[in-house]
Amino acid sequence: MAGGTDGPGTADGPGGTGPAGGGPVAGPAGAGGAGADDAAVARRVRVVLVDDHRMFRTGVQAEIGDTARTGVEVVGEAADVDQAVTVITATRPEVVLLDVHLPGGGGVEVLRRSASMMADQERPVRFLALSVSDAAEDVIGVIRGGARGYVTKTITGTDLVDAIFRVSEGDAVFSPRLAGFVLDAFASTDAPPVDEDLDRLTQREREVLRLIARGYAYKEIAKQLFISVKTVESHVSAVLRKLQLSNRHELTRWATARRLV
User: Fold this and answer.
1) Contact 77/104 with Cβ under 8 angstroms?
2) Strands 72-78 and 9-10, sheet pairing
3) How many structural domains is the chain composed of?
4) Among 74-88, 95-109, 180-194, where is mean pLDDT lowest?
5) 122 and 67 housed in the same domain
6) pLDDT tens sequence across 159-212
7) Burial tier of 52 (Cβ tally within 10 Å: 0-12, 13-18, 19+)
8) Residue of 230, 194, 6, 221 whose CA lies nearest to 103
């Protein structure tokens, strides 16, 4: 795993004056000059990053955490469920960037334990899922749990800042492909059928399965998930064993038949 886990952290925000230019929503970075854009710099959003990979958190912090440029102030970080609840409670950010798969119960458990803060009428904490997974069950699970949006980790820094501001204002934000999952799920009153074979797999094994089925090489999967190639090989072996399949070609057919790709 390229980035290890670590303890929770909070940070006092920098004392800058906000972004120098107008963005797609009041506050985010833009290319404009001063003067006419001065009204936009007053808007800031306080954010907590929750992800179990330190390297990924560091990258997000570098991409969006320059408050004077983006209007986003990162006030804390966490690597698992318990840390997340502690940091969110202590800092009361406007937006939490939440990974779906976390030690201690996952993003859904963080949402469950933060329900009272989400329901606060005066200072609501809003959640934006930021995950490598684009699986329908992951998207639907966190939205049912109370998240205001879901974007994948392929999002650009500019678009992520835009999404943060929109969620802070109460909007719902989704990567384009994922919006259909949510509409389909809430249009139906029927519970999705349980796939006993799929339920045998851990969340990480499901992620590896989907990427293998999409034709990713082991090195590409390792880079995407911030894990080692050896760990990818171990997950693939476990998936093949649990599903009683012989090779990645059978695995791809299996995943395609279940519309997991």
Assistant:
1) no
2) antiparallel
3) 2
4) 180-194
5) yes
6) 999 999 999 999 999 887 787 766 665 665 554 555 677 778 887 888 899 888
7) buried
8) 6
87 and 182 in a single domain? The answer is: yes
Q: Which residues contact 252 (CB under 8 A, 6 or more apart)?
A: 212, 213, 215, 261
| Residue 1 counted as domain residue | no
Residues 181 and 207 in one domain: no
pLDDT at 183: 66
**199, two tokens:** 């339920």
Based on the fold, state whether residues 247 and 168 are members of the same structural domain.
Answer: no
Confidence check: pLDDT of 21 > 70: no
Residue 2 in domain: no
Which of 69, 51, 64, 67 is closest to 5 using CA atoms?
A: 51
The predicted structure's pLDDT at residue 177: 75
Residue 245: strand, helix, or coil: coil
pTM check: above 0.70: no
Q: Which domain holds residue 202?
A: 196-257
Q: Which of 187, 207, 230 is the last residue of a domain?
A: 187
DSSP secondary structure of 24-36: SSSSS--S--SST
Q: Indicate whether 118 and 168 sit together in one domain.
A: yes
Question: How many angstroms separate the Cα of 200 from the Cα of each of 8, 194, 206?
Answer: 31, 11, 10
- How many residues in the chain? 261
Residue 69 belongs to domain with CATH number:
3.40.50.2300
CATH number at residue 214: 1.10.10.10
In terms of pLDDT, which residue wins out, 255 or 99? 99
pLDDT at 138: 84
pLDDT band at 3; cut points 50, 70, 90: very low
